[in-house]
């Protein structure tokens, strides 16, 4: 009986090991970015978080555009209130993010400002 319980516990543990959590970070002069994701086989659930470094209590952006990996993901807002922007990302049966990937981010805001930076695996 003990061997059966031990075997079942081991199988459950090994199945759970298929899940992987990875985090990417990067920054530019004005922005910090992060992508955190859980990967299970060909399923991925993640979230991008971008924070404006020089934020004030009343920070707001006009014409905010965030483009990730050359249009793989895009956010466009006429007005965004607050210094943090979150973008959810999920897929099933897809090509999931690999640990050696570098994620390109381009942010445009307030018509005349634009920066490009890269998110790399957090070590």
Short descriptors:
123 residues, mainly beta, Immunoglobulin-like, eight-stranded antiparallel sheet, 59% strand
Summarize the structure in words.
With 123 residues, the chain is mostly beta strands. It has one domain (20-121): Immunoglobulin-like. The protein contains 1 helix and 8 strands; from the N terminus they run αββββββββ. The chain has one helix spanning 2-16, and strands spanning 19-27, 31-40, 43-52, 60-68, 73-81, 84-92, 103-109, 113-121. It has an 8-stranded antiparallel β-sheet, with no helix packed on it. Strand 2 and strand 3 (43-52) form a beta hairpin. The longest helix has 15 residues, at 2-16. The termini are far apart.
Shape: elongated
In round numbers, the mean pLDDT is: 88
Radius of gyration, Cα only, in angstroms? 19 Å
Count every helix, treating DSSP H or I runs of 4 or more residues as helices: 1
What kind of sheet is the major sheet? Answer: 8 strands, antiparallel
State the CATH superfamily name: Gamma-adaptin ear (GAE) domain
The top level CATH class name: Mainly Beta
Brief summary of the model shown:
The protein is mainly beta and 123 residues long. The protein has one helix at 2-16, and strands spanning 19-27, 31-40, 43-52, 60-68, 73-81, 84-92, 103-109, 113-121. It has a single domain (20-121), classed as Sandwich (Immunoglobulin-like).
């Amino acid at each position: 009986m003990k061997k059966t319980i031990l075997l079942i516990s081991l199988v459950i543990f090994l199945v759970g090991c298929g899940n992987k959590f990875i985090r990417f970070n990067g920054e530019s002069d004005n922005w910090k970015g992060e992508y955190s994701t859980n990967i299970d086989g060909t399923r991925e659930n993640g979230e991008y978080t971008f924070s404006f470094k020089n934020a004030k209590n009343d920070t707001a952006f006009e014409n905010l555009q965030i483009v990730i990996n050359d249009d793989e993901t895009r956010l466009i807002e006429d007005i965004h209130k607050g210094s943090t922007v979150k973008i959810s990302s999920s897929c099933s049966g897809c090509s999931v993010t690999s640990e050696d990937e570098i994620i390109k981010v381009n942010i445009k805001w307030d018509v005349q400002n634009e920066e490009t930076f890269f998110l790399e695996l957090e070590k």
